[in-house]
Specification:
The chain has 69 residues and is mainly β. It has one domain: RNA polymerase II/Efflux pump adaptor protein, barrel-sandwich hybrid domain (OB fold (Dihydrolipoamide Acetyltransferase, E2P)), CATH 2.40.50. Helices cover 10% and strands 51% of the residues. The protein is built from one helix and four strands; from the N terminus they run βββαβ. The longest helix is centred in the middle third of the chain and has 7 residues.
């Protein structure tokens, strides 16, 4: 796989929750952290995603915000 995004985080799919048009895919990236991606149901089907599969969370954003308590 080649991709221009530099923020690729490996993990394991722990949950896929499909809605009417959009699915929430939860990826466990270790250390107790889980990233949730919102993608189309069609993308879930085309990628053949299943719970337990290895996957990458790919973050491509023009802004990243930082907050402190």
């Amino acid at each position: 796989m080649k991709i221009s995004a530099r923020n690729t985080i490996p993990g394991t799919i722990v949950e896929i929750r499909k809605g009417a048009t959009t699915a929430h895919v939860r990826i466990d990236i270790g250390g107790g952290a889980v990233i949730t991606a919102s993608i189309t149901n069609e993308a879930v089907d085309e990628l053949g995603l299943k719970t337990g599969d290895a996957a990458f969370a790919v973050v491509k954003a023009s802004d990243v915000m930082v907050a402190v308590p």
